[in-house]
Amino acid sequence: MAQPKQPATHTVTLGDFHTILDEGAVWKIGGFPLQDGSFWQYREPNAVVIVRNGILYVRAPLSRSHDQVQILDNAKHMYYSAEPVKLPESGEISFELSIRARSTGTAPNDLYDGYVSLNLLDFTTGAAIDFFVGNDTYATVYAVLPFPGVTVPDTEKTKYFCIFRESQEFAAREFNTYKINYNRGQDELVFYVNGQEVRRERGIPVKFNQFTVALGIMTEKDLTPEGSVSVHGQTVIGEWSPITITVKE
């Protein structure tokens, strides 16, 4: 009897943080072009960046904000992968890494006052699939967003959305392992923390095409009629391991 064909698997590592100052080699500063032709950079001017034993460390006193556009206000210091990762038409792809988050001056019990992120961003569809990690809480995030300059496809469901799920079931202020698995053929996302499934989303209304991998220091505070309220002297420290990307086709 013929044995069933096993899926082909291949793995790559996205890291090389020693090149972090060589803009565009492996990583580049994130941001978005603005309508006036300028570019809004996610770069904190007083961030301290250290690469040691393969780990990227960033300590950022938060100072930058944007009073009109929520997406520009949220991310404070962020690196994008220089090239997006193409997603398999069928089969699945996973992104796995370790993150440690520590902060000072953030509001107690308020993850969104300052945190460390892994973001998988599809600038062809507006998708944002994320882990947000704070001092004592993490969140999984499943979103399709109105990124500047991105055309989001119409669906029968709500066009723009962002659904957070928070948890404190992890080792606070220590390294934990985070993994996101996406199956394009089955329209399914699965989130794992330290090897345990923590969230599954089925029936995703948009087919994602590619992910820019982003590593960030962020806030998530709603703009007010008076503008941004996201910065009040807090400092966020993020540490990221290289990302293991595994494709099963």
Q: Specify the number of helices.
A: 1
CATH class: Mainly Beta
User: What is the 3D form?
Assistant: globular
**Class by helix and strand content?**
mainly beta
CATH topology, anyone?
A: Jelly Rolls
- The second-level CATH architecture is Sandwich
Succession of helices and strands: EEEEEEHEEEEEEEEEEEEE
Radius of gyration, in Å, reads 18 Å
Into which percentage range does the β-strand content fall?
A: over 45%
Total domain units: 1
Largest sheet: 9 strands, antiparallel
Cα distance spanning the termini: 23 Å
The percentage helix is under 10%
**Total DSSP E strands:** 19
Which regions have little confidence, pLDDT < 50, spanning 5+ residues?
Answer: none
Q: What does the average pLDDT come to?
A: 95
Characterise this structure.
With 249 residues, the chain is mostly beta strands. It has a single domain, classed as Jelly Rolls. It has one helix at 70-74, and strands spanning 9-14, 27-29, 31-33, 39-41, 48-52, 55-61, 75-81, 85-86, 92-104, 115-122, 127-133, 138-144, 161-167, 176-183, 188-193, 196-202, 210-218, 235-240, 243-248. Strands 1, 5, 6, 9, 14, 15, 16, 18 and 19 form a nine-stranded antiparallel sheet that branches. Strands 2, 7, 8, 10, 11, 12, 13 and 17 form an eight-stranded antiparallel sheet that branches. Strands 3-4 form a two-stranded antiparallel sheet. The longest helix has 5 residues, at 70-74.
Would you summarize the structure shown here?
The protein is mainly β. It is built from one helix and 19 strands.
Write the layout of secondary structure elements.
Layout: E1 9-14, E2 27-29, E3 31-33, E4 39-41, E5 48-52, E6 55-61, H1 70-74, E7 75-81, E8 85-86, E9 92-104, E10 115-122, E11 127-133, E12 138-144, E13 161-167, E14 176-183, E15 188-193, E16 196-202, E17 210-218, E18 235-240, E19 243-248
Antiparallel strand pairs: 1-19, 2-7, 3-4, 5-6, 6-18, 7-17, 8-17, 9-14, 9-18, 9-19, 10-11, 10-17, 11-12, 12-13, 14-15, 15-16
